[in-house]
Amino acid sequence: MVNRLIGWALLGYVALVMVFILAPIASSFVFSFNAGRFPSLPWAGFSTEWYAAVLSDPSIRTGLANSLIVAGCASVIATALGFAAAYTDYRYSFTGKAVYVALAMLPPNVPVMILGLAMLVYQSELSLAGALHSVIIAHVVYCAPFAMALIRLRLSQMDPDLEAAAWNLGASQGQALRNVILPFALPSILAALFLTMAVSFDEFAMAWFVSGFHETLPVRILVLLQREVSPRVNAIGSIVFFVTILLAAVALFLFSRRRADDATAPSRASSKSDAS
User: Fold this and answer.
1) Residue 19 and residue 14: Cα distance in Å, rounded?
2) CATH class of the region 60-263
3) Average pLDDT, stretch 11-35?
């Protein structure tokens, strides 16, 4: 009885936390369909005019295009670097390996405002700031550790003797990497690709520092908020939220599905052996 009460109390606590977190997002989504200019109750009526206004605004379309370009490029580069870093950690032992892993995982642990300011100073010294590639570079630095963490977790589940067996059978290191490591890590690579795309698409602090006149969509939202309280912000925020959640959900699905397949593989193998 006591355990059941504790369980219900914990469940209620989690539900309250989720409501506290999601209530502002839900209210923003609800008021994005409000015909009135101000987010107040009762509603002035259901309308999609704010979404139409968003889609017809050239600056918002440009920001959306910039966000998609940055997210696509940053996710590909960050995933490639994350895989290289994770494979180095998996395959090699060397002095200072713990320091190497700590430094590789450091950027997400630095406050984004500090990281954005550092990126601005560094890129200004190299005459790289103020362009779209500036945002891509900053987002690659920020997103690569996420890709490394996912792929590193996947490689930790791999039998290290598999690659050595491929070498003993005559495969070169490149062939073993291509035919053994990459197929095994592919689900985590795809998950990392979508996750880093979601992180990049949603990030605004570093983009605000280094983008100059090449605004991404989150930066455009900030500019709109600084100018006026516009219902368009609710519509844009809803679009950004659902795109980000969709990308993160795809990443979670890819990663969890592969883990589920791995968990059921031994039972399938044992059933086949029993049948034979």
Assistant:
1) 9
2) mainly alpha
3) 81
